[in-house]
Specification:
alpha/beta; Rossmann fold; six-stranded mixed beta sheet; 36% helix; globular; binds adenosine-5'-diphosphate; binds magnesium ion; nucleotide-binding
């Protein structure tokens, strides 16, 4: 079998497995029967898009994540802060399947056990991740970058004959407006500013309409104006998508945040509004050092 076919098969399997009719978290009791699920849909009827409980992972005996528990609501924009080495990136690695934890539970919605899936399947299920550095195709135009993001079949032949259908074209136009690059469709991505490249990459994620977006230090290296525009962008995405944002820039966090989670030594140290966590003695101690 070709890798493409295998990938396609894996994707279909993931989607089918994701929505087993009647199978429930409660071990197969009837709850699922009265609520037939659409294949590929994430079940958020219990008010959560992402749920982790007591997740731990060690690297060579060092516990990078230590009984981490998180509960993210559908449409929520959650900010995660914490000193260097707190485990923020590792947390994202676990959610996206890049790293498998030694212990704990990770659920997408209330029925999808993410620990059963590999990284590409998790992306297909609707979890998009933005790494720190922009990874757009510099030699291609903004438009083509977004178009490429639509393709599920990356085979050469499929790519050559790929044309977006009208729904996809509409989506592309909408994403271009959202990321404020509608005037730059024909520019080469390599000629964009750092901030614009970051927005383009977010746009590429949006083309797949992810339910949950993970963003690791999205405004690092941006100008103040770019940072302000990114805040606006995230506020428009909130509600339609759930966002998990890791950032060090406190003024940015202040603009976008509702609930803030402080991570320290792989665990949740504090949770609340930015003001609440900033006034928490333990948080102050961690940030100022002992
Ligand atoms: N693949 C890995 N192998 C070994 N150690 C790792 C690995 N990934 C992360 N770590 C360690 O885990 C800790 C948490 O790292 P990280 O999640 O990158 O923190 P943060 O993103 O909060 O700065 C650090 O001490 C880091 O060195
Ligand atoms: Mg990090």
């Amino acid at each position: 079998m070709t890798p493409d076919l295998m990938e396609e098969g894996a994707r279909r399997y993931a989607v089918r497995e994701a929505a087993p009719v009647g199978r429930t978290e409660s071990g197969g009791r009837a709850a699922g029967f009265s609520r037939p699920m659409v294949p590929g849909e994430v079940d958020t009827t219990h008010g959560r898009i992402l749920y982790t409980e007591d997740v731990s992972v060690s690297f060579d005996g060092f516990r990078a994540i230590n009984k981490l528990s998180l509960d993210i609501a559908p449409g929520e924009l959650r900010c995660i802060i914490g000193p260097n080495g707190a485990g923020k990136t590792t947390m994202m690695d676990i959610i996206t399947g890049k790293t498998k934890p030694d212990a704990g539970t990770v659920f997408f919605g209330s029925t999808i056990d993410l620990l059963r899936y590999k990284e590409p399947q998790i992306a297909q299920l609707g979890i998009g991740r933005k790494f720190q550095k922009p990874t757009v195709f510099e030699q291609l135009t903004v438009y083509v970058n977004l178009e490429l993001a639509l393709k599920t079949d990356k085979g050469v032949k499929a790519s050559m004959f790929f044309r977006p259908d009208s729904e996809q074209s509409d989506r592309l136009a909408e994403v271009l407006r959202t990321i404020q690059l509608a005037d730059s469709v024909d520019r080469l991505a390599g000629n964009l500013s750092h901030g614009q490249k970051q927005w383009l990459e977010i746009g590429m994620l949006l083309m797949q309409d992810p339910k949950l977006l993970l963003l690791d230090e999205p405004v690092a290296g941006m100008t103040d104006e770019e940072t302000a525009r990114t805040a606006e962008l995230f506020l428009t995405l909130k509600g339609q998508h759930s966002l998990l944002v890791v950032e060090h820039d406190m003024s940015f966090i202040k603009t976008i945040s509702e609930k803030v989670t402080v991570l320290h030594e792989g665990s949740v140290l504090a949770e609340g509004t930015l003001e609440q966590v900033q006034n928490d003695e333990r948080v102050i101690e961690v940030y100022l050092g002992r």
